[in-house]
Amino acid sequence: MSKYRKVLEDLLESSEANEYLTKIPKTRHEAWLLTTALCSISILETLEELVSLVETGQRTKKLERKKVD
Hints:
By secondary structure, this protein is mainly alpha-helical. 87% of the residues lie in helices and 0% in strands.
């Protein structure tokens, strides 16, 4: 997932994205682009947190099983 996050961050750092980020969107298209980029980053951050929680939970379950066995 960090690969996709990097792509989004690179896109946001591009000159075209900076143009959108530094002004109030004047058209629906500009607003849509900005909203899509921000939502995508938010979704990726949430997914990264969920993956981390699942991985942590799986490690915990493995340790619990070893203790029981």
